[in-house]
Design a protein that fits this description.
- By secondary structure, the protein is mainly alpha-helical.
- It has a domain of 77 residues.
- Helix 1 runs antiparallel to helix 2 and helix 1 packs parallel to helix 3.
- It is globular.
- The chain starts with a helix and ends with a helix.
């Protein structure tokens, strides 16, 4: 139960952070390119790298706290950070075929799925 609470709290903070960052970029540079989303994805991936490495090498975080920060906070901020971590782990294990397949497949399939969802709603 404690882990779920930490995930929920972290997720709320992360989602508010992502929304706020997106609004800030929108006001700074306007529409036309999703700079806020790109910034959230890059910052979230960077933060995931810092967090999991620090948790493994420097700090002794409890499992609920670590899960709240990774799955909750960073997951709420950007799920791209989890994708980046999974890809990096495959690369570190020299699983190049898996890493490339997962990376390309995730981007292509997710964009295709988004378009499929849009198509269904538009033509329903």
């Amino acid at each position: 139960m404690q882990t779920l609470l930490m995930i929920g709290l972290g997720g709320a903070v992360g989602a508010i952070g992502r929304y706020s960052l997106g609004r800030a970029f929108f006001h700074m540079v306007g529409p036309g390119f999703p700079w806020g989303t790109l910034a959230a994805n890059v910052l979230g991936s960077f933060a995931m790298g810092l967090l999991v490495t620090a948790a493994a090498l420097k700090f002794n975080l409890s499992q609920p706290v670590q899960t709240g920060l990774t799955v909750g906070l960073l997951g709420g901020f950007t799920t791209f950070s989890a994708f980046s971590l999974e890809t990096a782990l495959m690369i570190e294990r020299s699983q190049w075929t898996h890493a490339i397949s997962y990376s390309v497949g995730s981007v292509v399939l997710c964009v295709m799925a988004l378009f499929a969802g849009m198509y269904i709603v538009r033509h329903w």
